[in-house]
Amino acid sequence: MPHNTRYPSPSSATSAGRSHYSSSSSSYYSPVRETVAINRPDIPDFRFCMELGLVLRSRALDHKSSADLERELSRILTKKNIANSIISPRPTSSYAVTTDSPSSREWTITSEASIPEHPRDHRFGIKLVSPFMKFAAGKHESWLNKIYALFHTLNADFEVTSSHQCFTHIHIVPACGFWKYSQLECLAKSALYFEGCLDELVPPYRRKSVWAKSNRYNAYFGSAKSMKQCFDRIDKGGKLDINGLATRMNWCSASSATGLSLSKDGQDFMTDTYRWSFTNLVSEGGSGFGTVAFKQPPASTSASEAIGWVMLVGCFARLACVLGDSIRPEDKPLTTSLGEWLVYEASWCQVPHVQVLRDLLRQATPDMMKEVAGGLNKGKGKDAEALTIDEDQRLRKKQGEREVVVEKYRRMLKHIH
Predict the structure, then answer these.
(1) What are φ and ψ of residue 323, in 5° steps?
(2) Which of these, 95, 154, 101, 146, lies nearest to 126 by C-alpha position?
(3) Is 210:395 a contact under the CB 8 Å cutoff?
(4) Spatial contact of 275 and 381, defined as CB atoms under 8 Å apart
(5) Cα dihedral 86, 88, 58, 204 sign
C-alpha cells in the first residue's frame, strides 16, 4: 500500500529529511489546505537537461571565430574524458532524429545567437547543452560529478564570463518521458503563483528580460485581476487539453514589442521567450511528450551556481506535483516558506550538497525575507514597450534555430521506451 503522510510546517524542515514527515503535525504551509495528504510514490522523478549560455575566451589561443573556439573546447573536453560533440545551430532536417542529431548522453557545443560576440577581444557566445540526467533517482553523484567536471575544465582552460543575455535554462520531464495533464496543470499553477517569489532569486535584469518574460502577465493571463482568475483561466482548458494549457502559458500579443518583432501575420502567437516555456509540448503533438523549461536564471559561471538551479527546479517540480492542486490562490505566497520547502524537498530526495541550494536562496534580494504582497510584483516582467535594435535582431535570428534539447529528448525516448 502507498504510504500516505501529511506535509508538516516548513519550519520543521531540516537536513534529517524523511524522519520529519509526521501525520500528527498541527502546523501547515499557509497557502495549502490543512487536509493535504502526500502519496509519495505518485511524485515523479524527473529527468533534466541544462542549457548553459556563456561567454568564453581561451586562455591559450586568440581565436578569430566562435567555430575555432568550439573546436578547442571540444578537444579539451574530450582529453578530459567528457563526452561531447559540436553541432551547427541550424537544423539539417525538420527536427527529425538523424545521424547528425546530438546524443542525449553527452554534452553538446553550439553557438548562441542571443549572446553578442566580441571577436576583437576573442570572446564568443557559446551554448553548452548537457546530457539528460535523472534528478532524484538515487544516483545524484552521477549528475553532480558531470557538472563539476565540466566547470573544472572550463575554468581551468577558459575565461568564463557572462552578459545580461547569458542564461541557465533547466528543461524537465518526468522520468517516464512524458507528462500527465494533472502534473502540467499543477506545475503551471505553481509557476504563476510563485512567480513573484522566484523573481527575488534572480538579478533585476532577469526580471525584465525579453528572453524570459512574465507568464503571469502574458497576453492570456495579463488582464486577470487576481490569481484566482488566472487559475480559473487554466481550468477552462479542460482536463485533457495539454495543447491548450501550453498555449495559455506562452501566449504573446502581436501588438506587443515581441509580437511586432516576431509575428508573421499580425495574429497573437505562442513563443518560448517566457520564464516557463511549455512550447516543446506543442511541438511534440500535445500528447504529454516534451520538456518544460525554466528560462529565467542568469548565467552560471561555476558548478555550484548551475547545481543550485538544477536543485531548485527539480525540487520545485516535485513540490508542484504535491501541492499544486492545494494552493489557495487568494492567499499570498510566502517566499521564505517556499525556500524552506525547496530545501526540505532536496533533503527528502537525499541530494548531496543541499548547502548549494541554501546558498542560492540566501543570495536573494532583501524582499526574499518578506511576504510577496499581492501587488508587489504587479506588471513585473511584462513585455517591454519597445525593443532595442539589438534585441529585435537577435529575436529574429533565433527563429528557426535548431532545437537541440528537442533532438536530445527524442533520442532519449528511444533509450527508455
Answers:
(1) -110, -10
(2) 154
(3) yes
(4) yes
(5) negative
- Grid cell 535570428 in the structure block, residue: 397
**pLDDT tier at 384, thresholds 50, 70, 90:** confident
Q: Provide the 3-class DSSP secondary structure of residue 59.
A: coil
User: Rg of the Cα trace of the chain?
Assistant: 21
3-class SS string, 307-322: HHHHHHHHHHHHHHHH
Answer whether 406's CB lies under 8 Å from 283's CB.
yes
Task: Please state whether 251 falls in left (phi above 0), alpha (psi between -120 and 50) or beta.
Answer: beta
CA 388 to CA 55: how far, in whole Å? 21
Q: What's the grid cell of residue 82?
A: 567528457
**Cα dihedral: 92, 78, 310, 100 (round 10):** 10
d(CA 78, CA 386): 44
List the one residue out of 308, 333, 307, 330 whose CA is nearest residue 320: 333
Residue bearing cell 507528462 = 179
- Reported as half-sphere exposure (CB side, CA atoms, 13 A), residue 43 has a value of 24
Q: Are 43 and 319 in contact (CB under 8 A)?
A: no
| pTM (2 d.p.) | 0.88
pLDDT tens-digit readout, 165-206: 999 999 999 999 999 999 999 999 999 999 999 999 999 999
